[in-house]
Amino acid sequence: MKPETEYRLGWLLLLVVVLAGIGLRWPWPADEPRFALIAQEMVNTGQWLIPHRVGELYPDKPPIFMWAIAVLLWLKVPMKIAFLLPSALAGIGTAWLTVDLAKRLHGPRVATWCLWLLAFTIQFSLQSRTAQIDMLLVFWVTLGGYGIARHLLLGPAWGWYFLGFAAAGFGVITKGVGVIALFLLLPLIWRSDLRQKMAKKAWLGPLVLIAAIATWGLPMLWYAAHSSNPEAMAYRDNILFNQTANRYVHSLGHKKPFWYYVVEVAPVFWLPLSVLAPFLVKTWWRDKVKPEILLPLVMVLATVLFFSISPGKRGVYITPAVPWLTLAIAPYLEQLLSRVWPKRLWMAFAWLLSLILIVAAFLHKVLEQLGTHGRVFLLGTGIAMALALLLTRRQSPMHRWGWTLAAFWAGYGFIGGPALDSIRTPRDIMVEVAKRIGPDGQLALLDYKEQFALFADRPVTQFGFHGPMDEQRASARDWVQRGPQYYVLGPKENMEQCFEMKPEDNLGERHGGIWYLVSAKELKAGCEPGVTPAPLYKGPDYGLYQKP
Asked: Which positions ≥6 away from 52 have C-beta within 8 Å?
């Protein structure tokens, strides 16, 4: 294959991986419905500075990612496209920055290999197709590191240096940890040749970072200080303290052991990089004197170590390290592919992935959970991956892996997404709710999940996302007694203390609960006596789902 053809084909397949199936499914839990809901609420209410979720301040994240979706919605891009497009564009942008840096450091051939490695690394592909904040964070971290690398390795280039700090700042107001882009500066501690690139004006970099954070931070602080709303002040304190240092040191959830990323995440989600990296340890140690090899390795090790120290861990957290690992592996790919075992292991994992899908399609439990359409997706995609491996058997492992992963993501996007949409969303339940309560019915959600509000055909009321359940039930008790047109939808485990769970009120099982629609007729006597009811929050009419 000619180098130019290989390069163009790599970009074409990357676009397939990132964009296949966009517009064919709705947001799926856990995070996608939340961000889609908040973005639509921004557009519908005009409240853009601080995110709201069904009328209540959303205290957990800055608004940058939600803004990206909201701008697209404001431009009349359909929700099915708008909620996924920011991550897709961030993935494409991350790939361009990584490949361009590889080209400048090692030449076009290595840049092509870097493109193929990054595009088909499972975690990169997955996050580029998922409406979570993390892919946008990866873009900011990559841009930050790109700017600093342009200065340290190819400079002096002070414009790129300051852009790197600005990108790190925007990463902070995207998801708090954008400063990990500055890990690229760690080798300055022991490398005098790199320190020589830092003139007196290098200290302006942190000021640029602070200025980038201030673009949203200062308006938010001003709003909180001048607002009489205690929730705004609580939001300020949560963003400044709880969601940063306190959450890093004293995480309340997702607790995993120190070795979690190295043992449980990277071996699978960093394929094929995780297969190739062990064969390069000795070579990297030998070549660590080369700054173009040292800096990417430091970024990878520092990022994994940084997130490993915190007790709270999710596999997605270490995604920012993936572009830098490709930059460390790509210069040696030709050397690796001249050896037998790297090639054998790489292809063994490719065949294993296709085999897993084919076998899973015949498991009875899979049929129960995913239905016939889900089985068709698994079987069809598994066979397509196997065919890709057979038809490309004379090509290099890099190309064979690329075609195989492209087949998987195309099958996932065009078949899997539409097939699983009815299972991963509560749209059927919400259509039934609309039929039962009629056009004039008033709906409240007890212990609600964002996807239920997103698929409602009218404004909904909720009683506080994190409020104590006894207080929420007390509010639901008072709500249904307002009149015959007032209804509450909630999961059985939190409803049965106050309401009769009649079979005809059962709307089905979805998202970890059995959902019931009740009114004052089902209210039990003595429901939560003496409990102060939780406050009421009412969202706008999101207008996303058609009335039946």
From this structure: 38, 41, 42, 45, 58, 539
pTM for this entry: 0.94
Sign of CA dihedral 203, 204, 205, 209: positive
With beta carbons less than 8 A apart as the criterion, state whether 172 and 185 touch. no
91 pLDDT above the threshold of 90: yes
Q: Of 229-233, 251-255, 428-432, 465-469, which range is least confident?
A: 251-255
- What contacts 238, CB < 8 A, 6 or more positions away? 59, 60
Mean pLDDT of the chain: 92
* Residue in 145, 158, 157 with CA at minimum distance from that of residue 100: 145
241/31: higher pLDDT: 31
Closest CA to 443 of 507, 370, 398, 393: 507
543 φ/ψ angles, rounded to the nearest 5 degrees: 65, 25
Question: Nearest 5°: phi and psi at 382?
Answer: -60, -40
Helix (H, G, I), strand (E, B) or coil at 536: coil
pLDDT of residue 228: 75
Q: From CA 324, how far away is CA 304, in angstroms rounded?
A: 12
Which distant-in-sequence residues (6+ apart) come within 8 Å of 173 by Cβ? Answer: 62, 64, 212, 213, 215, 216, 217
Long-range contacts of 199-205 (CB under 8 A, 24+ apart): 199/156, 201/158, 202/161, 204/162, 205/161, 205/162, 205/164, 205/165
pLDDT at 548: 39
DSSP 508: E
Average pLDDT (306-330) is: 95
DSSP state of 171: H
| 3-state DSSP helix/strand/coil % of the chain, to nearest 5 | 70, 5, 25
Worst-scoring range by mean pLDDT, 206-215, 243-252, 256-265? 243-252
67 Cβ contact partners less than 8 Å away, ≥ 6 residues apart: 39, 42, 48
* Per-residue three-class SS string for 233-266: HHHHHHHHHHHHHHHHHCCCCCECCCCHHHHHHH
Residue keyed to tokens 């592996």? 329
At position 357, the amino acid (one-letter code) is L
pLDDT digits (tens, 9 = 90+) for 467-522: 899 999 999 999 999 999 999 999 999 999 999 999 999 999 888 889 999 999 99
Partners of residue 509 on adjacent β-strands: 514
pLDDT at 245: 59
**3-state secondary structure at position 365:** helix
**Closest C-alpha to 152, from 211, 207, 199:** 199
- For the chain, the straight-line distance linking the first and the last C-alpha, in angstroms and rounded, comes to 54
